[in-house]
Amino acid sequence: MSAEANDPLTDPLTQTVADVGEALGTDFLSLSDPFTPEQADVLKRVRAFVDDEVLPVINDYWERADFPWPLVRRLAELGVVGAGIDGYGCPTLDKVASGLVQMELSRGDGSLATFLGVQAGLAMTAIYRCGSEVHKQRWLPQMAACEAIGAFALTEPDHGSDSIGLETSAHRDGDVWVLDGAKKWIGNATIADVVVVWARDTRDGEVKGFLVEKDTPGFDARVITGKGSLRAVWQAEIDLQGVRVPESNRLPGANTFADCADVLATTRSDCAWMALGHAVAGFDAALSYTKTRKQFGQPLVNFQIVQQRLVHMLADVTAMQLYCAQIGKLAEIGKLTPTLAGLAKLHNTSKAREVLAVARDLLGGNGILLENHVIRHMTDIESIHTFEGTETMQTLIVGRDITGTGAFS
Length: 409
Fold this sequence. Notes:
CATH class of the largest domain: Mainly Alpha
Shape: globular
Number of strands: 9
Number of domains: 3
Radius of gyration: 21 Å
Number of helices: 11
Largest sheet: 7 strands, mixed
């Protein structure tokens, strides 16, 4: 980037939402300097969208647990749905640019970023990697335009971290597959036009993928209510009772659980970028608030202990940025392994939880008000911390890699 990159009035990484405060130094190590023009452009576009269109309205959607349809439609207009997929109307964004999109959307709202992760990172990627050319031509252009919504149904009520143990069954009946079972925590399922359902073939015991289209008899999806996290995106419980799917809707490239795991591996690094966005939102809000909030006759930032906590928050955010910068580079050259992505996810979600807890504390009682854009991020990070493999599961996976010994079956 140009020499203006260090100017807080022009550097996109140092711009923050107007209703929280002035431009802040959230790119302390100038990691945006080597951004390509394309990466800088997508960051500016998504940041402007978040500041101008998301933050003014998202608290209301979140509080009502309502899905923000107008914002979702704008994602397609921004050209950010389907990054990493070649052709089919999808945007040509590299891995770093794609991560920056997830970071910025999460800085605005975790629900919106999660929708994109399900729509593009899981459902579209599964069709692109495992589907036939007919499947790709039919679904991917519509999904890139958000004219069709997708979902990815893997997790089951009794199989969360143990996803490989899924019990949903598929048995062949002539030219039709019959699916039976249950799924849980399936994002977008109640509004999806197509759901990628993973089920175990009763003949060979292997896990296969199927495209279940909207209004297929026997497919019942219900919104999970009572959530205290990611309230503006809908997850569902699904019942599959004798769901008949034609052989033409089976994903020909999804024949083992390893094929499913390959799709999941592409989205694990997204969680690290998402966690970074949540942490930046918390840090920006805390720094802005403590500069203007006066107690004992002076702004809070005048107190040593407040400065100490802000500096520690900045150190954590900067470390998270370094993780994301490196996994972005590794992904671009094909060297990002699932274990490395898991380590980044483990680190960033853990640090984001700490940063947001400190931010909430620095805002005092005002920290629990949605208008201050901290408590929403603090609860939303709990979901990011959990999905795509909890901290515990990532620890065991990385531990196996560095020790050569698996501590779980």
